[in-house]
Amino acid sequence: MKKNSMECSTPNDIYLLFKSSDFVTHDLEHAFDDCVVDETIRTEDIQYVLVLRKWFKVNPSCEFRCFVRNRRIIGICQRDLNHFEFLFPLRDQIRDEILEYFDSVLKETFPDSDFTFDVYIPEPYDKVRLVDINPWAPRTDPLLFSWLELLTMEMPQEPLPNDSDVQVDAEEGVEDLGLKLELRLVRKDDPEAYSFASPQYSAHKLPKDVVDASIGGESSMRKFAEDWKKMMEGGVKMQRPGDDSDSDD
Question: Which residues contact 147 (CB under 8 A, 6 or more apart)?
Protein backbone atom coordinates (compact mmCIF):
# COMPACT_ATOMS: atom_id res chain seq x y z
CA MET A 1 0.00 0.00 0.00
CA LYS A 2 1.39 3.39 -0.96
CA LYS A 3 2.02 5.93 1.78
CA ASN A 4 -1.02 8.09 2.69
CA SER A 5 -3.11 6.26 0.13
CA MET A 6 -5.84 3.60 0.04
CA GLU A 7 -4.52 2.17 -3.22
CA CYS A 8 -4.10 -1.59 -2.87
CA SER A 9 -1.78 -3.79 -4.91
CA THR A 10 -1.69 -6.98 -2.79
CA PRO A 11 -4.19 -8.97 -0.68
CA ASN A 12 -2.30 -7.88 2.44
CA ASP A 13 -3.14 -4.26 1.60
CA ILE A 14 -6.82 -5.16 1.58
CA TYR A 15 -6.54 -7.08 4.87
CA LEU A 16 -4.91 -4.03 6.47
CA LEU A 17 -7.74 -1.77 5.31
CA PHE A 18 -10.27 -4.24 6.74
CA LYS A 19 -8.47 -4.25 10.07
CA SER A 20 -8.28 -0.46 10.11
CA SER A 21 -11.96 0.18 9.36
CA ASP A 22 -14.72 0.30 11.96
CA PHE A 23 -17.19 0.76 9.08
CA VAL A 24 -16.48 -2.81 7.96
CA THR A 25 -17.47 -4.05 11.40
CA HIS A 26 -20.67 -2.04 11.16
CA ASP A 27 -21.51 -3.45 7.72
CA LEU A 28 -21.01 -7.02 8.95
CA GLU A 29 -22.77 -6.75 12.29
CA HIS A 30 -25.12 -3.74 12.17
CA ALA A 31 -25.94 -3.24 8.50
CA PHE A 32 -29.70 -3.32 9.14
CA ASP A 33 -29.80 -1.00 12.13
CA ASP A 34 -32.53 1.65 11.70
CA CYS A 35 -34.13 -0.42 8.92
CA VAL A 36 -37.70 -1.69 8.75
CA VAL A 37 -37.80 -5.30 9.94
CA ASP A 38 -38.42 -7.84 7.19
CA GLU A 39 -39.21 -11.23 8.69
CA THR A 40 -38.39 -12.96 5.40
CA ILE A 41 -34.72 -11.93 5.59
CA ARG A 42 -32.39 -13.84 7.88
CA THR A 43 -28.94 -12.50 8.73
CA GLU A 44 -27.32 -15.90 8.18
CA ASP A 45 -28.67 -16.02 4.62
CA ILE A 46 -27.02 -12.78 3.54
CA GLN A 47 -24.23 -13.22 1.01
CA TYR A 48 -21.56 -10.56 1.49
CA VAL A 49 -19.65 -9.37 -1.56
CA LEU A 50 -16.32 -7.56 -1.69
CA VAL A 51 -16.41 -4.93 -4.43
CA LEU A 52 -13.04 -3.66 -5.63
CA ARG A 53 -13.01 -0.44 -7.59
CA LYS A 54 -10.36 0.74 -9.98
CA TRP A 55 -7.98 3.17 -8.30
CA PHE A 56 -7.58 6.68 -9.62
CA LYS A 57 -6.09 9.75 -8.00
CA VAL A 58 -8.71 12.13 -6.63
CA ASN A 59 -8.43 15.84 -5.95
CA PRO A 60 -10.39 16.19 -2.65
CA SER A 61 -11.48 19.73 -3.51
CA CYS A 62 -13.62 18.35 -6.35
CA GLU A 63 -15.66 15.89 -4.26
CA PHE A 64 -19.22 16.76 -3.30
CA ARG A 65 -21.94 15.16 -1.17
CA CYS A 66 -25.54 15.38 -2.35
CA PHE A 67 -28.65 14.89 -0.21
CA VAL A 68 -31.80 13.47 -1.82
CA ARG A 69 -35.27 13.60 -0.24
CA ASN A 70 -38.38 12.41 -2.04
CA ARG A 71 -36.28 11.96 -5.18
CA ARG A 72 -35.24 15.62 -5.16
CA ILE A 73 -31.78 16.92 -4.38
CA ILE A 74 -32.24 19.33 -1.49
CA GLY A 75 -28.63 20.22 -0.82
CA ILE A 76 -25.06 19.81 -2.06
CA CYS A 77 -21.82 20.54 -0.21
CA GLN A 78 -18.09 19.94 -0.24
CA ARG A 79 -16.75 16.69 1.20
CA ASP A 80 -13.37 18.17 2.12
CA LEU A 81 -13.91 20.78 4.84
CA ASN A 82 -11.23 23.20 3.66
CA HIS A 83 -11.58 26.50 1.89
CA PHE A 84 -11.02 26.39 -1.88
CA GLU A 85 -11.42 29.84 -3.39
CA PHE A 86 -11.48 28.58 -6.99
CA LEU A 87 -14.76 26.70 -6.39
CA PHE A 88 -16.90 29.79 -5.90
CA PRO A 89 -16.92 31.01 -9.53
CA LEU A 90 -17.67 27.40 -10.58
CA ARG A 91 -20.61 26.95 -8.22
CA ASP A 92 -23.38 27.23 -10.86
CA GLN A 93 -21.58 24.97 -13.34
CA ILE A 94 -20.91 22.26 -10.75
CA ARG A 95 -24.47 22.37 -9.42
CA ASP A 96 -25.96 22.14 -12.91
CA GLU A 97 -23.72 19.20 -13.83
CA ILE A 98 -24.78 17.33 -10.67
CA LEU A 99 -28.47 18.04 -11.28
CA GLU A 100 -28.24 16.84 -14.87
CA TYR A 101 -26.44 13.67 -13.78
CA PHE A 102 -28.98 12.98 -11.04
CA ASP A 103 -31.98 13.48 -13.34
CA SER A 104 -30.59 11.20 -16.04
CA VAL A 105 -28.97 8.46 -13.94
CA LEU A 106 -30.22 8.20 -10.34
CA LYS A 107 -33.56 9.94 -9.92
CA GLU A 108 -35.81 7.17 -11.23
CA THR A 109 -33.47 4.19 -10.96
CA PHE A 110 -32.30 4.09 -7.34
CA PRO A 111 -34.82 2.08 -5.28
CA ASP A 112 -34.95 4.42 -2.27
CA SER A 113 -36.49 7.88 -2.48
CA ASP A 114 -34.25 9.25 0.31
CA PHE A 115 -30.48 8.78 0.15
CA THR A 116 -27.18 10.59 -0.19
CA PHE A 117 -24.54 10.19 -2.86
CA ASP A 118 -20.99 11.40 -3.38
CA VAL A 119 -19.62 12.57 -6.71
CA TYR A 120 -16.30 13.63 -8.13
CA ILE A 121 -16.11 16.36 -10.79
CA PRO A 122 -12.54 16.75 -12.04
CA GLU A 123 -11.28 19.57 -14.22
CA PRO A 124 -12.67 20.84 -16.64
CA TYR A 125 -15.73 20.23 -14.42
CA ASP A 126 -18.00 18.91 -17.13
CA LYS A 127 -18.22 15.24 -16.18
CA VAL A 128 -19.67 13.67 -13.03
CA ARG A 129 -18.26 10.47 -11.57
CA LEU A 130 -20.31 8.62 -8.97
CA VAL A 131 -18.11 7.71 -6.00
CA ASP A 132 -20.53 6.26 -3.46
CA ILE A 133 -24.15 6.05 -2.31
CA ASN A 134 -24.91 6.34 1.40
CA PRO A 135 -28.06 5.85 3.48
CA TRP A 136 -30.31 8.69 4.58
CA ALA A 137 -29.36 8.10 8.21
CA PRO A 138 -27.44 9.76 11.07
CA ARG A 139 -24.41 7.54 10.44
CA THR A 140 -23.91 9.43 7.15
CA ASP A 141 -21.99 12.61 7.93
CA PRO A 142 -24.04 15.68 6.86
CA LEU A 143 -20.81 17.72 6.69
CA LEU A 144 -21.76 21.40 6.12
CA PHE A 145 -25.43 20.73 6.88
CA SER A 146 -27.09 19.23 9.96
CA TRP A 147 -29.60 16.40 9.91
CA LEU A 148 -32.19 18.60 11.60
CA GLU A 149 -31.71 21.16 8.83
CA LEU A 150 -32.00 18.51 6.10
CA LEU A 151 -35.14 16.99 7.64
CA THR A 152 -36.92 20.33 7.99
CA MET A 153 -35.63 22.09 4.89
CA GLU A 154 -38.17 23.31 2.33
CA MET A 155 -37.93 21.65 -1.04
CA PRO A 156 -35.99 23.75 -3.57
CA GLN A 157 -38.12 25.03 -6.44
CA GLU A 158 -37.87 23.28 -9.78
CA PRO A 159 -35.53 25.10 -12.22
CA LEU A 160 -37.23 27.75 -14.31
CA PRO A 161 -37.38 27.32 -18.09
CA ASN A 162 -34.69 29.96 -18.57
CA ASP A 163 -32.74 28.49 -15.60
CA SER A 164 -32.42 31.94 -14.07
CA ASP A 165 -31.29 32.51 -10.52
CA VAL A 166 -33.02 35.87 -10.17
CA GLN A 167 -36.48 37.23 -10.92
CA VAL A 168 -37.14 40.94 -10.68
CA ASP A 169 -40.61 42.30 -10.00
CA ALA A 170 -41.15 45.12 -12.51
CA GLU A 171 -43.20 47.20 -10.05
CA GLU A 172 -41.51 46.50 -6.75
CA GLY A 173 -37.98 45.89 -8.00
CA VAL A 174 -37.70 43.01 -5.56
CA GLU A 175 -35.31 40.20 -6.38
CA ASP A 176 -36.49 36.64 -5.72
CA LEU A 177 -33.34 34.71 -4.87
CA GLY A 178 -32.79 31.08 -4.07
CA LEU A 179 -34.71 29.54 -6.95
CA LYS A 180 -31.97 26.94 -7.27
CA LEU A 181 -30.88 24.56 -4.53
CA GLU A 182 -27.86 25.53 -2.49
CA LEU A 183 -24.38 24.24 -3.18
CA ARG A 184 -22.74 24.95 0.17
CA LEU A 185 -19.00 25.72 0.18
CA VAL A 186 -16.57 26.48 2.99
CA ARG A 187 -15.89 30.20 3.00
CA LYS A 188 -12.55 31.65 4.02
CA ASP A 189 -13.91 32.97 7.30
CA ASP A 190 -16.00 29.87 8.16
CA PRO A 191 -15.01 28.06 11.38
CA GLU A 192 -14.93 24.75 9.47
CA ALA A 193 -11.93 25.96 7.47
CA TYR A 194 -9.80 26.35 10.60
CA SER A 195 -11.30 23.83 13.00
CA PHE A 196 -8.85 21.37 14.51
CA ALA A 197 -11.50 19.73 16.68
CA SER A 198 -12.36 16.12 15.88
CA PRO A 199 -15.49 15.89 13.71
CA GLN A 200 -18.26 13.49 14.60
CA TYR A 201 -17.05 10.67 12.37
CA SER A 202 -13.28 11.28 12.56
CA ALA A 203 -12.62 7.83 14.06
CA HIS A 204 -12.67 6.25 10.60
CA LYS A 205 -9.64 8.34 9.63
CA LEU A 206 -7.45 6.27 11.96
CA PRO A 207 -7.00 2.52 12.31
CA LYS A 208 -9.49 1.16 14.83
CA ASP A 209 -6.61 -0.25 16.95
CA VAL A 210 -5.26 3.30 17.37
CA VAL A 211 -8.65 4.64 18.44
CA ASP A 212 -9.17 1.75 20.90
CA ALA A 213 -5.68 2.19 22.33
CA SER A 214 -6.19 5.92 22.82
CA ILE A 215 -9.35 5.23 24.80
CA GLY A 216 -7.40 2.84 27.05
CA GLY A 217 -4.96 5.55 28.15
CA GLU A 218 -1.18 5.82 28.21
CA SER A 219 -0.46 2.15 29.00
CA SER A 220 -2.62 0.97 26.10
CA MET A 221 -0.95 3.40 23.72
CA ARG A 222 2.50 2.22 24.89
CA LYS A 223 1.58 -1.44 24.33
CA PHE A 224 0.11 -0.60 20.94
CA ALA A 225 3.33 1.20 19.93
CA GLU A 226 5.44 -1.77 21.04
CA ASP A 227 3.24 -4.28 19.17
CA TRP A 228 3.26 -2.09 16.07
CA LYS A 229 7.06 -1.91 16.14
CA LYS A 230 7.31 -5.71 16.44
CA MET A 231 4.90 -6.17 13.55
CA MET A 232 6.85 -3.79 11.32
CA GLU A 233 10.06 -5.66 12.16
CA GLY A 234 8.41 -8.97 11.36
CA GLY A 235 8.28 -10.21 14.94
CA VAL A 236 4.47 -10.33 15.03
CA LYS A 237 2.27 -11.87 12.36
CA MET A 238 -0.39 -9.50 11.07
CA GLN A 239 -3.85 -10.67 12.09
CA ARG A 240 -6.11 -11.68 9.22
CA PRO A 241 -9.90 -11.36 9.21
CA GLY A 242 -11.39 -14.36 11.05
CA ASP A 243 -8.32 -14.96 13.20
CA ASP A 244 -8.89 -15.23 16.94
CA SER A 245 -7.74 -11.88 18.38
CA ASP A 246 -7.12 -13.53 21.76
CA SER A 247 -4.77 -16.19 20.41
CA ASP A 248 -1.07 -16.04 21.22
CA ASP A 249 1.26 -14.66 18.57
Answer: 138
